[in-house]
Amino acid sequence: MAGFIMTLDSDDDGPARSPSPSPPPSSTRKTSSKNDAAPAAKGKKGKAAKGAKAKGKGKKLLDTVVDADDDEDTPVDSPRGGAADEEVRMDKGFVFDGLGGGFIGRERNSVWDSGEAYIQKRPNAMPRLSVDEIIARRAAIKSAEALLEESDGDEDGSDEELDDEELEKEMMRDLENGDLDFEGLDDESDDAGEDDEDDEDDEDESDVEEKEEAPAKKAAARKDVGPQIVGGGDEADEEDWLGLKEKKSDAGSEAEEKVGEDAELDGPSGFAALADVDMSDAEDDGDDDSEYDEDVSPADRQSRADAAAAKAFFTSHENSTTLSRKPLSFTTLPNCTLSRQLLLALGSLNLSTPTPIQAECIPLAMLGKDIVASSATGSGKTVAFWVGVLERLLHRDRKNPMTRVVVMCPTRELAVQVHGVGMALARYTDVSFCLCVGGLSLKVQEAELKQRPDVVVSTPGRLIDHVRNTPCFSMDGVEVLVLDEADRMLEEGFRDELEEIISAAPRSRQTLLFSATVTESIQQLTRLSMNKPVRVKIDEMGAAAKGLDQEFLRVRGDKAGESIELNSRSGERHREALLVSLCTRSFSSGRTIIFFRSKAQAHRMKILFSLFGKGLEKSDELHGDLTQEQRLRSLKRFRDGEARFLLATDLASRGLDIKGIENVINYEMPKSIEIYLHRVGRTARAGQKGRALTLVGESDRKLVKLAMKHAPPESIKQRTIPGDVVAVVSKQLKALEPDVRDVMQEEKEEKEIRRGNMELQKAQNMLEHEDEIKSRPARTWFQSTSEKNAAKNLGKAEHNSKFQEKTKKRALDEDEEPLSKAPKRTPFSGLSRREKRRKMAMREDEEDRASGAQREIGSSIRAAKKAALPGKIHAARPERTPGQGEGKKKKKGGKKSVFDREMGVADGGAASDKRPGKRERDMMKGGGGAKHSLGRMGPKPKKR
Ligand SMILES: Nc1ncnc2c1ncn2[C@@H]1O[C@H](COP(=O)(O)OP(=O)(O)OP(=O)(O)O)[C@@H](O)[C@H]1O
């Protein structure tokens, strides 16, 4: 990297062709020094502000030596970002080496450090113990006990506990002698016999393996010896489930490949045959793939259905920049000129060539257009929106400070990261930032919002909290609203919050939506009241990152009764052992993020990992049951390489950009293809390579095929693990079960103690500061607690049910309007017209009968319920006049509103039941009873 000296002159305020005139330098100076003082609110007065003052005093501009330390400190010290002096001359020896405090585009990034400034330090709070701390405490107690026993002369205790290695050796001996019975993993030789008819090639392959395997077993019990089948299946069966067998023979290639210790089976060219996945056919067992060929892809289906609406909704746009194939740089982006401050920041972060999404979106964002943009994971969407937004901010009216940009993210961690990236890009500007996310100190945020930061990065809930309860903060001046991970933000769980935020922001704002799986639903987008947005689409919907290898490992169902005994899903028994085997063998190097569907499972696995050891103890968990501090600490440890495994829920599935994640493991297939794409997108980012492995149960096959659909065939692999290895691990895990229970019990006790302490603290606070506490205005929220919980549950349901919804929707589509060229088979396919009509008529009759019966059942249930109700005591009512109907009129005459009563609409009164005739209306106009009653409610008639 070439070193250079950069001098920023007063013309650095704006580009040559700027959308709005640059403000005079004097105003910049003023704002700048004012902003420098802002961090004082956080108690970080001193250095920066003093330095700025000192510089201001000198007659000539002083040279400011910017070294790597300064850069590093700026954002950490001040969440408001590095307030740049308008004229900065750099040291001759200074070299932009890509490490000079950069946050992105380098190995060691520190975007999460920005969150640390917001962590509320509670000196009296009892720290929550991590699993590792509990285990370490237990170990210390155990060793102390052992020492005591030793000193008592009792040396038997140490022998009782079997050393891990000894246990392993013993089990391997058992295994070789055939004594070990691993339930659920069928003996390979048995299975080979059962599935002979499947494919002769497979038989040959297994022979070869066995020959290879025998000496290897002798040499080292745990050593892996090539492709084998795990999860109870035989090899033939395993190969079939991804459709490798036929493709392999078609291509005439060797499909087996040893990678690392475990084996992967490559999926060569023929995967296209499996690509068209019919999600609607729930009954299909997945063996007959021929009918999938006739299907239209989900993307086609979606685009056809929405084409007309989309045409009207979006401004037409062609990806001109990316199509031109000219080598681009940030300095030569067509139709826009970036400010030197931004170019400098981009350069210091090692970002010189814009990615396609950046090349397309930056000019559009600078023009103030609304954008709906999508591109694969890790393709640089964050920089794509920040650059445009920051460039606009450089031309703001500095005399009138207010929050002009709001960036919203669905998770706190993502918000912290996005905030960090924004600050890194704005380090040579005077743009100020505030991070407003749940779980971090409200007070710090309130103090910063008082300073009217230019940009607020937030999660929706906390933003609404501030809109409602922080007096100095309002969204009236918001000019740009960015929704990162827009499709998630538009899901049910965020719906109400988003509506509240949209209504608080001015209509004239610019709205930018970014996601790898951005919604195509115009219905959802219209809720944002965008102004003819431009749709920028770089990658095909559903496409995974280019350098990603996707592996699948089959998890066989349990033998009858096992899952019932375990009270878990089928195959659960094997998953833990499979995961541990994978992590101690093929995934033992590099950093791996492991996704779980539930917090409980992620936590249990963390305990198992810590107890198991062998490198697995270098792991951390990340899910909603942890405190925000713990969550950020886990991320930091993982990012810094202190933890090699991150056991996370979907909290970490979107947006997180951690350098050096080589592997992603899905402990189970997620519930929708979108979530799958985001999860596996945590690796293979920014043109890097990565691999994702998914443990696939019987019910996940359709989703696997969907994942394979958009992937290059050579990137799909089928992984296997030798059954004996899993058997050993499984036994070891079983042996750890009592310890797991003990750790969980200790955690429970800890929790109770913590809760007690908290209550005590609360009571003490109340006693000491009662007046102050009671005088504080109560914080308000736009939903009641029950509404909030209901929205949360709805969101969860929607988040988890995309797959089922799609299935239903497709089934419906098929009934209403067959979009595929070749219609799908229906129950009437292949019948003569007459026969078909007869069957259809019979079906309709049946449906009619069923619905009639249903109605009857419904009405009799209602009648029975009514009869069972105790009789009501009614006040005597005037008799109804004959001719008065029951239905609607009865309802009207029932419950009266206060308004009706005030209006003098008495029960049974004519006014209540009859619309006044013309004569009566005339009377009312001219004066009469009705006017009299209105007169009581309405304003006093003016005297003439
Ligand atoms: N122009 C660029 N040149 C090289 N690397 C870049 C460029 N822009 C961004 N990157 C790098 O790409 C990585 C991914 O960027 P980013 O997190 O913005 O991806 P994303 O598209 O938002 O991904 P996701 O969909 O997962 O949120 C970052 O580490 C960033 O440093």
TrEMBL record:
Listed PANTHER family: ATP-DEPENDENT RNA HELICASE DBPA (PTHR47959:SF1), ATP-DEPENDENT RNA HELICASE RHLE-RELATED (PTHR47959)
Region (Disordered): 1-89, 146-304, 781-944
One Gene Ontology MF term: ATP binding
Domain of life, per lineage: Eukaryota
UniProt feature, compositional bias: Basic and acidic residues: 213-225, 242-261, 795-812, 912-924
CDD domains reported for this sequence: DEADc_DDX27, SF2_C_DEAD
Reaction equation(s) it catalyzes: ATP + H2O = ADP + phosphate + H(+)
Known EC number: 3.6.4.13
SMART domains named among the record's database cross-references: DEXDc, HELICc
InterPro entries documented for this protein: DEAD/DEAH_box_helicase_dom (IPR011545), DEAD_box_RNA_helicase (IPR050079), Helicase_ATP-bd (IPR014001), Helicase_C-like (IPR001650), P-loop_NTPase (IPR027417), RNA-helicase_DEAD-box_CS (IPR000629)
EC class of the enzyme, as a word: hydrolase
Compositional bias (Acidic residues): 66-75, 147-168, 177-212, 278-297
Keyword Oxidoreductase part of the UniProt annotation: no
Organism: Rhodotorula toruloides (Yeast)
Region forming the signal peptide: none
Name of protein: RNA helicase
GO cellular component, one term: cytosol
Keywords annotated in UniProt: ATP-binding, Helicase, Hydrolase, Nucleotide-binding, RNA-binding
Domain Helicase ATP-binding: 362-536
